[in-house]
Amino acid sequence: MHADEIDPQAKAAIERQERFPLPHSRWGLKLARLLTGPVTRLQNRNPPPVGETVDGTVPGPAGDLDARLYLPDADGPFPTVVFFHGGGFVLGSVDTHDWLCRHLTRESGCAVLSVDYRLAPENPFPAAVADAYAAVEWTAANPDAVAGTGRVAVAGDSAGGALAAAAALMAAERDGPEIAYQALLYPAVGVERGQPSVEEHAGIVLDEADLEWFRECYYDHEIHERNPYADPTNAGDVSGVAPATVVTAGFDPLRDGGRAYAEQLVRDGVPTRYENYADQVHGFMTLREVDRATEAVADVADDLAGAVRADG
User: Residue 146 phi/psi, 5° resolution?
Assistant: First the structure.
């Protein structure tokens, strides 16, 4: 499940990132969020071009949610991919995932609607899930507002992957909008203490203290950890959800949880493509200096494009 060693480009990238350890306190979290802004603006210089970007909002259950629409350099309308960023449910924003969303747009020919959601610990579960599902419902009901064809997919990385999976599950169980596809990039689902991936790779990008801090912030109460909308691996039956791509990374503590959900989808008859990038680390698809990241984004984009074509 993992290569002999981490890809050198990925290793160099995460060594640079390790200068900024994750906070494990509310004060540290506030500071990290303040620092994220200028760092992200610096990183987002000279971004990959797309046809157009439009900053705006979409309605959420507790107020408007910031969103950014990425449009291809072509004539629309376009299928729409609703994207949710990672960050352990406590960090991240539309800006932190600008590079990834731009590449998804360029490679898929789809419009990508990147949506912020309420963050923990200020807003624990189910706030983020409610926001994610509301954004999907609104997108499906308002295709003209996003230059859309009416075909909708969901995607997300890490915590955002969990939200995309939850939105797909909610849509299936609640007779909600039709979701054509779900792309789950090293999703934060099915992660359990003692899994080989946690035991072997905690400390690479994420350590066990990070995972525990995210868990405490997001779930607020242990009863929520068993809720299928918090973690779709808790669902007894996922047979009605959209076809999926599930991506994991060999040196990621979250690897085994993502693989378990891919296996669960397959057992329940959901068409699923599972890809484990054996020499990569958690978050690798946002590392712009890593060649394999660009290749992985292109592969996921191909899956999305094939699923949301106008001819269905």
Answer: -120, 20
CB 79 within 8 A of CB 273: no
Give yes or no: 252 in active site: yes
Question: Is residue 32 exposed (0-12), middle (13-18) or buried (19+ Cβ within 10 Å)?
Answer: middle
Region class of 148: left (phi > 0), else alpha (psi between -120 and 50), else beta: beta
24 is catalytic: no
Question: Is the model's pLDDT at 312 over the cut of 80?
Answer: no
131 alpha-carbon distance from chain centroid: 14
- How many other C-beta atoms lie within 10 A of the C-beta of residue 116? 22
CA–CA dist 171, 166 (Å, integer): 9
- Amino acid in the structure at residue 247: V
Q: Which helix (H) or strand (E) holds 81?
A: strand 78-84
State percent of the chain over pLDDT 90: 84
Q: What pLDDT sits at residue 129?
A: 98
Catalytic residue among 93, 97, 282, 303: 282
CA distance 227 to 50: 38
* Beta carbons within 10 angstroms of residue 121's beta carbon: 16
pLDDT tens digits along 283-294: 999 998 899 999
CB-based burial, 220-247: b 16+ in 10 Å, e otherwise: beeeeeebbbbbbbebeebeebbbbbbb
Amino acid at 209: A
| For range 232-255, the mean pLDDT | 98
Active-site residue (options: 158, 197, 279, 303): 158
Active site residue 158: yes
Quick check: helix, strand or coil at residue 292? helix
How many residues are there in the chain?
312
Which residue among 252, 256, 279, 303 is the active-site one?
Answer: 252
